[in-house]
Amino acid sequence: MAVVAYGKILPKEILEIPKYAPVNVLFSLLPLYRGAAPVNWAIYNGDEYTGVSTMKMGIGMDDGDILLTERTPIERKNALMIAEELSVTGADLLLKTFDSYDTLTPQVQEHDKATMAPMMSKQDGLIDWRKDAAHIERMIRAFMPWPGVYTHLDGKLLKVFAADVDENASETPGTVYSIGKDHFSVATSQGGLIIKELQLEGKRRMDAAGFLAGYKLQLGNKIG
Fold first, then answer.
1. Is the preceding omega at residue 38 within 30 degrees of 0, hence cis?
2. What rounded mean pLDDT belongs to the chain?
3. Which helix (H) or strand (E) holds 114?
4. Sign of the CA dihedral 74, 80, 86, 88?
5. Peptide bond preceding 18: is omega within 30 degrees of 0, i.e. cis?
6. Which residues lie across from 176 on neighbouring strands?
């Protein structure tokens, strides 16, 4: 039996059905990030790596013995990109796990090192411009596609899909301090967020160049 992203804890009578202990495929480097959204929180927290683990299922939340793991660098990828990458890695690792199951030595997890990765809420995606720019940029990648990252401009919802960090900004958080042909920048508590792709309420998703061509954004405008 193999389980991937089922979302519920299977009861003991189900776990005892297969000849071989049921195996779970989790997009996490256990014991880190047990729960529903391990990739998202790894990106959010600025981890250098995430990956896949196969484990023997138990009656607890992702606390079974580890069978195999494979890690991948996060770099500048968003959660959707990594999930697609790990779906291939996870399938390969599951086959390797079953092929070598009889010779594997399960490793008991270090439970004191475990962290939880709960499902995000819509409120988690609200930008607080008092945070630093690197934190907000990670949010954008971490919460793709759900719950997404958003702020407000002139009373309308503004979703942000892609951004870079400007380490040299020093204006009041939430202030538009730079406008170029293909981007605009908003100050944070430390550095600035260079917004590259977005969607204003009532409009389609577009790059910043398209947005600026139709919206009279000005230096000094407040966002949030």
1. no
2. 96
3. none
4. negative
5. no
6. 186
Predicted structure pTM score: 0.94
- Report the SS3 class of residue 25: strand
pLDDT of 21 higher than 80: no
Q: Is the pLDDT of residue 60 over 90?
A: no
Name the one residue in this structure whose structure tokens are 């900004």.
169
Rounded Cα distance, 111 and 155, in Å: 46
* CA–CA dist 87, 146 (Å, integer): 18
Q: Residue 52: which of 87, 84, 100 has the closest Cα?
A: 87
Residue 165, pLDDT score: 98
Per DSSP bridges, beta strands 66-73 and 49-56 are antiparallel
Whole-angstrom distance, CA of residue 176 vs CA of residue 193: 10
Of 51-55, 59-63, 146-150, the least confident: 59-63
